[in-house]
Amino acid sequence: MKKRITLLSALLIIFCFGTTSHAQQKSLKGSGEIFFSQDFDWADPTDERGWSLPEGYTLIDESDNGYNWLWHPYDSIVAQYTAEPPFESTSHENGYLALPLNMYNNYLDPMLQVNNAIQFPLIDCSSRSSVVLRFETHFMNGGDGANEIWVSNDDGVHWAAFDCGFGTQHKDRPLDAAPGVPVIYEANISEVAAGMPNVLIRIFWGSTDLYFWVIDDFTLSEAYDNDLQIQHYALEWDDGNEDTNESFIHDIPISQVGGTYTNFLASVHNFGEMDQDNSTLTVDVKKNNETVFTASATKSWISPLVIDTMTVEGGYTPTEFGHYSIDYTFSQDQEEQNAVDNSRQIFFNVTDSVYSRADDSSELSWAFGFERYGPEDDETGWNIGHFMGTVFPIYGDCEINSQSVFITGG
């Protein structure tokens, strides 16, 4: 029986944008050139708040409670329910944009909901054949509130909304980023912005009362002609037992191998302006940096802005001690112009006796293999009255002589 192991493609890449003000420039199609940037260097010692809003930017407070976006210095977000470390964005030294709901609602009962936006000045995209929006971000959302980018090309009469929620719910962190570590939000907004002379952009957060959203290093750029991006990746473990609960294992004793890694899967996003011909997923398994298994799957073409999924068939069973890596790489006939996000890699070790689902890094912000038990209909007490455990199936004879557990809270 094949057991699905899903590995989200956590933390992307933090881009260095290298400019601190926005500017309009003539550019070539498909160049990937940044034509607008904002790093929120808004400190102003002459203002009693310590910062001032630049000309052309507007704060929109639909709930009329004063819970506005603000400039936040490079400092921790500390309040009743949060003790976040400083946000380590590329230009963090000069501060960043924030909506610190937990600070606004600090020990307030009842807490007030936010429906707030910050609107950028008009941006001229008339010479742009495509428009890609990016920023570095981190957030915790205390409910089902909407984290969105709104874009208008008709002076705000109509708006297109782009979800910035990364698929998370409640207080889960985006893409498993560790506290203070940014992830990249990226959206192709060409359908509403490309070729338009008066583009309005809003960052909107609504219908929630906790916790915070921070943003820095906001840019608009043209898309590349040829740009594939790996989205997520997965593999299956076939142990021959349909009743086995299984997930990824970072360290496994050789006596417990008892199965095969198979059905290597990944999705790819054509983020460029052109069709990408013979787009190929290649999986390469290395033992101690030497290839022991490789295979690939190909699609004839992938159209612009399409997300497609490929599965590499076949499997690999480790048979020896060692350090193993699995590389997932996308390629195409065209010359890739932004290869930094075409690949992902995971590691595992076949050991003498260590059996572990997580590595030994103090930076680890997630763990595999958790199962939760308790009242399924109790949504008010969160984890109160629940307990969690991790299953380690025993596939072969062994002797257990010690057990280590590390428990940490949010």
Amount of beta strand:
35-45%
* Total beta strands: 24
Q: Report the major sheet.
A: 6 strands, antiparallel
Q: Radius of gyration from the CA trace?
A: 24 Å
Shape: globular
- Approximate helicity band: under 10%
Structural class: mainly beta
* Spatial separation of the terminal alpha carbons: 35 Å
- Pick out the low-confidence regions: 1-28, 167-175, 362-370
SSE topology string: EEEEEEEHEEEEEHEEEEEEEEEEEE
**pLDDT averaged residue by residue:** 83
Count of alpha and pi helical runs: 2
Description of the molecule:
- The protein has 410 residues and is mainly beta.
- The chain is 2% helix and 41% strand.
- Strand 18 (276-287) and strand 19 form a beta hairpin.
- The radius of gyration is 24 Å and the shape is globular.
Summarize the structure.
The chain has 410 residues and is mainly β. The chain has helices at 101-104, 190-193; strands spanning 2-8, 34-38, 58-61, 70-72, 77-78, 83-84, 96-99, 114-119, 132-141, 146-152, 160-163, 183-188, 200-208, 211-221, 228-238, 251-253, 260-270, 276-287, 290-302, 307-316, 322-331, 343-351, 370-373, 387-390.
Jot down its keywords.
disordered N terminus, six-stranded antiparallel β-sheet, mainly beta, 2 helices, 410 residues
Describe the secondary structure blueprint for this structure.
Layout lengths: L1 E7 L25 E5 L19 E4 L8 E3 L4 E2 L4 E2 L11 E4 L1 H4 L9 E6 L12 E10 L4 E7 L7 E4 L19 E6 L1 H4 L6 E9 L2 E11 L6 E11 L12 E3 L6 E11 L5 E12 L2 E13 L4 E10 L5 E10 L11 E9 L18 E4 L13 E4 L20
Parallel strand pairs: 16-22
Antiparallel strand pairs: 1-15, 2-14, 3-8, 4-7, 5-6, 7-14, 8-13, 9-12, 9-14, 10-11, 10-13, 15-17, 17-20, 18-19, 18-21, 21-22, 23-24
